[in-house]
Design goal:
The complex is a heterodimer of chains A (185) and B (163).
Chain A lengths: L17 H36 L10 H41 L2 H8 L2 H12 L1 H8 L6 H22 L20
Chain B lengths: L22 H33 L11 H22 L4 H6 L1 E4 L8 H13 L6 H4 L6 H6 L2 E4 L11
Antiparallel strand pairs in B: 1-2
The chains are: A mainly alpha (185), B mainly alpha (163).
């Protein structure tokens, strides 16, 4: 996620938008009031509704509640059927639409323009420690013993250099030139 | 870490890559090379005697090499070993063990002529190595004369362009 170009995924400083904030606040208050009123109305009216749907002294087959239950069952069956048909249609349409979109959109260019590939690669390499994998997989494998001998040699070189440095003039007439790193073998 | 950091060289040694090596590393490398040359010369001696045995097994006795011819053989083998190694991979076996490489003045592989001259020079005047301890540039007498350097280089491949 961090490799995606453009604004970072953490929100920056939010710009002040008073009209929008006011509209959100009004909508939130209205929704809260509506919810409260509905709950209270249902608490008060539910016995009445229950009485209307299941009136006493009326046969179960003639009660409105029974009619509504049958209607709900029919609606449920129709809903499942519609969902099944919609899924079938989506299975047919989505691959074709996707194929058409991919034909019309240069996905490679989109990725190049909007994804920081180098940054992404760096993050991956930082996670997997590729140099160690290279050392283990190539023919130039250097055993820990050889590595230790080499590092001890370097340490010895530095120690000798420090000792001999005391006997040299502080400002040598011809200081040691640094080898150009670009021409290093 | 960046893509430029992709190197088989361990983290602790990367800072030294390309810098000139000091007396300790070079002395150890030369010691290893001396052992290698001793093995080669010993193998030649044994091979020579084996050939003599097969040619005349009845009156075979181990040859007693004359000091002059023995010394000549050692010097020739040593010079050839160093020259060929520096001209091809830039490193002898001792340099390989110690992670060193002999490079030209621009950091590339030695030309064959320079490599041969350095091999002969190092064979006839090995004490010139000690100058790298005195020199602030860490260069032996051979390095100063032939404008070469011995650097830390743990990477496996040698530079392609002779310099």
């Amino acid at each position: 996620v961090g490799a995606v170009t453009g604004p970072t995924y953490l929100p920056d400083v939010v710009e002040e938008q008073p009209p929008l904030d006011l509209a959100v606040a009004v909508a939130f208050v209205a929704a809260t009031v509506a919810t409260t009123v509905t709950h209270r109305a249902m608490a008060v009216g539910s016995p009445v509704v229950r009485l209307l749907l299941r009136p006493p002294l009326v046969g179960a087959r003639l009660q409105p509640g029974t009619w509504l239950d049958g209607l709900a069952a029919y609606g449920g069956r129709r809903r499942a059927e519609v969902e099944h048909r919609a899924a079938h249609v989506l299975d047919l349409l989505v691959p074709q639409v996707t194929e058409t979109l991919l034909r019309r959109v240069d996905l490679t260019a989109v990725v190049r323009n909007h994804v920081d590939l180098a940054g992404l690669v760096d993050e991956v390499l930082a996670e997997i420690d590729l140099p160690e994998i290279i050392r283990e997989s190539t023919g130039s494998v250097t055993s820990d013993t050889v590595r230790g001998i080499r590092m001890q040699g370097i340490t010895g070189d530095e120690a000798v250099e420090r000792i001999l440095q005391r006997f040299r003039p502080r400002h040598p007439r011809h200081p040691a030139p640094e080898l150009d790193p670009t021409t290093r073998p | 870490m960046t893509v430029e950091d992709l190197t088989p060289v361990p983290q602790e040694a990367r800072a030294y890559q390309g810098q000139r090596a000091g007396l300790v590393s070079r002395t150890i490398a030369n010691t290893v090379d001396a052992v290698v040359v001793a093995v080669i010369v010993g193998s030649l001696y044994l091979g020579f005697n084996a050939a003599r045995f097969f040619l005349g097994p009845t009156d075979f006795t181990l040859s007693e090499p004359a000091p002059l011819s023995s010394m000549t053989t050692v010097l020739v083998v040593l010079g050839a070993y160093l020259s060929v190694a520096w001209a091809t991979t830039g490193r002898t076996y001792g340099c390989h063990v110690m992670g060193l490489r002999v490079v030209g003045r621009r950091g590339g592989r030695l030309r064959p002529v320079v490599s041969l001259a350095r091999g002969v020079f190092c064979t006839l005047f090995p004490i010139g190595l000690l100058w790298c301890a005195v020199s602030s540039e860490k260069r032996s007498v051979q390095d100063v004369v032939l404008r070469t350097s011995v650097i830390y280089d743990w990477k496996p491949r040698a530079p392609k362009t002779p310099t």
